[in-house]
Each structure stands twice: as structure tokens, then as C-alpha cells.
Amino acid sequence: MAETLFHKVWNAHAVRKLPSGQTQLFVGLHLIHEVTTPQAFDMLRQHGWRVAFPERTFATIDHIVPTRAQRRPFLDVMAEEMASSLERNCRDFGIPLWTPDHDNQGIVHVIGPELGLTQPGMTIACGDSHTSTHGALGAIAFGIGTSQVRDVLASQCLALDPLKVRRIEVHGSLRPGVYAKDVILTVIRRLGVQGGVGFAYEYGGPTIDAMSLDERMTICNMSIEGGARVGYVNPDETTFAFLRGRPFAPQGEAFDRAVAWWRRIASDPNATYDDRVTFDASAIEPTVTWGINPGQSVGVSEAIAADPQDEAFAFMGFRPGARVTGTKIDVAFIGSCTNGRLSDLEEAARIVKGHRVAPHVKALVVPGSKAVSRAAEARGLHQVFIDAGFEWRGAGCSMCLGMNPDKLEGRQICASSSNRNFKGRQGSPTGRTLLMSPAMVAAAAIAGEVVDVRTILDEVHA
Amino acid sequence: MSHQPSAISHVGGRGLPVRGNDIDTDRIMPARFLVSVSFEGLEQHVFEDDRKADRSHPFDDPRYRGASILVVNGNFGCGSSREHAPQGLARFGIRAIVGESFSEIFQGNAAMMGMPCFAADRESIDRLQTLVEQNPETTIAADVQSGAITAGTLRFNATLPPALRDGFVSGQWNPTAMLLDRFDDVRAVAARLPYIRGF
Ligand code: SF4
User: Fold this and answer.
1) Which of A288, A386, A306, A308 is closest to A345 using CA atoms?
2) Which residue of A has its CA nearest to B172?
């Protein structure tokens, strides 16, 4: 029978039907970080449980790390306590941990794929809603809460109901200056921030097929912003080429056998879906959020059209009918698990090169991982950014959320390549976030206001 | 949290209406309060930034003091998977939530601490919110099995995902013990997976 990847992976990992009617699902890879695990380890200790599969569990520290001075102990005593608590927990339970002094450290959703830990056909869980990122490699990856982290630590399993699958098909080619970020913002805008509740999103079609893994990760990353807990792309040659040679990927002949299995696990061509939607990539333009949820976005040439009573207008200071272009920014942030990978930094650097950050803008580039940082430095990208007036920081979540020293102040407006524009998300209760592609953030940093990146790209080409 | 949970068949108490769609977990529990290794004290920070911005926020309204049933609108708890959000609400004294809809992760997290999130249609929720706003003393009663919600003369039906509902009613809303029950089966599944066998 023709099946989707979701169902094949689900069935391969189903342990049994629980009395509750839910499925007990085996988790092939458990990624953990400092924020959502301390209480889970406490619960484990209270019950005298061990970690069932420490060899399938990997830890990093990302949310709380300062990006300026990463030396221990961290200045923030609470952050230091969280870091040392994770160190103790990983030591006690035999889990490998990559702290900021280790070459493998980075944002959990950046390092999983980069190290080859994330592989097609796996079930993956992490106490973090952007775990959907790993679906870019053809894994079924769930964001979970702390009690579920406890469950996975103790049993390597989750109790779950299956999801429906919606095929999101993207056709046509992206125009210059339009990126994966614009695609996913457009998808969320059209399907709504809760349109994906109860669904796994399968992204496909020629536009997605033509994308790199970095781009697919940007798309899958934001599935949760559309309400979908899981998002994935079927594994293909691009996926296999990406994985070959990565430290935790199968090596030698095992890799070829793995590829054979990965091919079989992909959705069958005539699989049936619970829903299908189609997007035309050529109709998408650079997109920016104007509101307080990721569905509230507009193309750069459009006027903001929404219910004038929407609280987003008062909070953000936009008026109905206004455009986002021309909005003065205070901060520009390039980074996060959505857009903190090498190709994101390359594209941003291409735009920045030869320009200066506007004098009133504080601009920072935060690589998603130590490996991204090393690769960018090897290519001299850091120098391009520094020469232009950006700060070049150490790897971490940084200004994506207010859990470390990188925070907005007061009502500052930030052009951000991250994923959430919720009130207060970037650390100031009244701070304002405009989500956009890293290229658009770079353009805004230079112009000092939101601009259509294509105006700068034209210069680059000229 | 206890691991021999008891059955939850009814929840009753006064209501606390918080209006608005898409209220995310960053608003329920701002990230800076996650810099801690325990959930203790989170009740002090529920909706902290919203409450600072709006002094008449329902969580500060003396008329709702002691209320235990939160009444919300659509997509409540969207965004971050932080369990700190339902933990803060539970520690504040919230025992159940009635709303138009919930994010899946939030609803699952809340269930793990024995807090049912009932979903009902917009009109019923609006009427319940209005009723509570006009008569904060009204007691709301929620029946977990049937989903019947009653408050004064208002009566409507709400739903819970069946597995969560059955878990509350049978007292098995915390699945760890169940998941550990047949660990040999877990090992067997692991042993069959190509990526664990080494392909
Ligand atoms: S970069 Fe942002 S969204 Fe990604 S894991 Fe870190 S805090 Fe979460």
C-alpha cells in the first residue's frame, strides 16, 4: 500500500497500542539542552529511574550561553547553575554533552544535522518546539515538554496520537532576493498559526526539491509556528550527499545500505494525504512580519491589511494600510536555529560586503554553532561583517529569546532572522520583532530601516 | 508531581477569563523566568509582562482571586514547548482550562500535570467569559467524561482528546509507568531499527 514517510516511520517505531488508545512510540534520537531538562532529571532521581538509552541521547548548551564571553563560570549565576546542573546530570546518567568549550557545541537544531546525528527515518524528540527542524532530513521530529523529556529519558518512548499529514507542495522558482524564509512565512500566513494543529506538514514539489538542506531546515523549523508539531521533507540525493562523511552518519558500506533504507522510507509517489495545498513560489516576494505572531506578515510591496482592532497594531505601532518598508530599526539580528547556518551567513555577507551598518543600528551576527562559526571564519565572512560594523559573536541562541545577555531594550525594533515575533520574545516586554530572511536583515542593517533586499542585490549584480 | 496520579472526573471552581487568540507561552511565562533549575516560584510570574502593561489584567483583578478555571479563546499556549507555562498556571491555582482551542504541545504538557484543557465553540466560550465577567462568583463545573460544562444557567458541551480524557478518568494521565511497563518490547523495537543495528 502506498504510504507517507510519516506513517512508515511511525509504524517502524510503534512499540504497542497503550490502554489509552495512544501509541507507545520509540524515540531513535533524544536531544537535550539546559532549559527543559533539569526538572526531568529531578523526577528521574525521585523515582530511582535510569536513562534507558544514554547512547541515543545527546546534550548541548545553547539557550543561556552568553555570546560575547563564553568562558566559565558564566557571569550570570543562574545561567551558570543551569550549565553545571546539566553537566552533573549528563555525568551521572552517562550522556555525552557538548559545552561551549567544545568544538561540537551549538544550537541543538543546528548541531543535530551538522554532526549527522539526525538521519532520515528516525524518530527524534527534544524538549524544544523547533525540533521540527530535523524533519528536513526526512526524520519525524517532535518538540516535547519537560514531563515528556522525563518519559523519554526513562523509557526512550513517548505516548502519542498519530498525526494527519498535509502535503504542502511548492512549485515554481524563487525570484532573486526571495528565500526559504519567505516561503515558510507565506505558508504560515496563508494556512494560519493554528492551521497545522493535528497535522504533520510534508513539504515537497519542485521548489523544495531544488532546495539545499539548509533551506529545507529553515522551512521545517517554522512548522510549529503554523501549529504543526512535525514538518518534514522526503529524503533524496541532496539529503544523502549532505549526510555523507558527517561524524555520526553511517560510514563506508553501511552508508550505502543506509541510503537504500532511506529511499524506501520516503513517501510513496501515490501516497494519500489528509490534505493538500499548493503554493506558487514565483509569486512570493520578500516577506516581513508586522505583528505579534508569525502569521502576521506582508510582502514588501503590500500594505498591511488586518482588523484595525487587532492588538498587534497598538503593540507594534503600525497603522492599517501602512507598509513595512521604511520602518526604522534599532537592532539587526542574524542567527538562530531558523537562519544561523553557513549559507545564511554567506548570503547576508554578500549583501553586506562593501557597505556600512547604519550608525543608529546595533547589528550582530551569531553563528548557530561552533562549526558554522569555524566555517564562516575560514571563508573570511566574519571579516566582512566586522568591517561593515556588525558584531561577530560566539554560537548560541542569542537574541532569539530573552534567556541570555543579548536582549532588546525598551521598545526597540529588531529586524530578526529568528522565528518568533511574540510580545517580549527578544527579552524586552515592549520590544518589537520584525521577522525576515537573513538577507533582508542585512539590508535593513545597512539602510537603517526595512528595505526590499532586491534593491541592494541589484547593486551587487551590477 | 506524583506518579500514582488519582482519577480526575470533575473539576469545579470559579472562572478566570483571559480574552484573546494566539496567547503564546512566551506571554504566559516570559523566557527570563526559565533561567532556573526548578519550577518553584513560577506562580509569581504568570503573565508578568502582560500584567505590568495592563494593570487591569484578569490575573490581578481581585474579583477573580481564588479562581481555578481559566477561560480562554483560540490557540491558547502556542509557541514554545516550555512546560514552565502550564506549571506556572497550576502553581497559581489553575486546575483546568476551558477555551476555543489549544496548541497540541501545551495541551499535552498540561495533561501531564493533571490539568485538562477543554475545547468548545466560540459562542459558548464567549458566553462563559461574559458570564464570569458579570458574575465572578459563578461556579463552573466541568465533567471530564462527558465534557459537559455548566455555569449558572449556562450549559454546553466541550471536548478533550479521547486519550487524554480516558487518562484523566482512569487516573492514568501520567504515562511514564505505562511506558516502562513492557520494556522488553521497547528493546525489541530498537533492535529491529536499521540505524540501531548498523544498517
Ligand atoms: S534559536 Fe531560538 S528557537 Fe532556536 S532553539 Fe534557540 S531559542 Fe529556540
Assistant:
1) A386
2) A20
> How large is the ipTM?
0.93
| Cβ atoms of B75 and B102 closer than 8 Å | yes
What is the CA(A337)–ligand 1 centre distance, in A?
6
A-chain CB neighbours of B72 within 8 Å are none
Q: What is the pTM of this model?
A: 0.96
Phi then psi dihedrals of residue A63, to 5 deg: -65, -40
At position A175, the amino acid (one-letter code) is R
Query: What residue owns the CA closest to ligand 1's atom 4?
Result: A337
Q: How far apart are CA A315 and CA B197, in angstroms?
A: 53
Residues 6+ apart with CB under 8 A from A215: A179, A180, A343
Which helix (H) or strand (E) segment is A85 a member of? helix A77-93
Q: In what order do the strands lie in the sheet containing A157-160?
A: A14-17, A23-26, A157-160
Cell numbers at B169, concatenated: 478518568
Q: Please report the beta strands in chain B, taking only residues with DSSP state E, as ranges in sequence order.
A: 10-17, 69-71, 96-99, 117-119, 139-143, 148-151, 154-157
Q: If you measure from the C-alpha of residue A321 to the centroid of ligand 1, how many angstroms do you get, rounded to a whole number?
A: 32
Å between A320 CA and nearest CA of chain B: 19
Substitution target in B57, B76, B83, B165 with the highest count of A β-carbons within 10 Å is B83
Q: How far is the CA of A251 from the centre of ligand 1 (A)?
A: 30
**pLDDT tens by residue, chain A, 462 residues:** 899 999 999 999 999 999 888 999 999 999 999 999 999 999 999 999 999 999 999 999 999 999 998 899 999 999 999 999 999 999 999 999 999 999 999 999 999 999 999 999 999 999 999 999 999 999 999 999 999 999 999 999 999 999 999 999 999 999 999 999 999 999 999 999 999 999 999 999 999 999 999 999 999 999 999 999 999 999 999 999 999 999 999 999 999 999 999 999 999 999 999 999 999 999 999 999 999 999 999 999 999 999 999 999 999 999 999 999 999 999 999 999 999 999 999 999 999 999 999 999 999 999 999 999 999 999 999 999 999 999 999 999 999 999 999 999 999 999 999 999 999 999 999 999 999 999 999 999 999 999 999 999 887 665
Could you say which of B80, B84, B180 has the minimum Cβ distance to residue A154?
B180
Cell of A440: 533582508
Is A96 strand, coil or helix?
coil
Cell of B68: 481555578
A24·B101 Cβ contact <8 A: no
Nine-digit cell string for A185: 512565512
* Strand A23-26 relative to strand A157-160, pairing: antiparallel
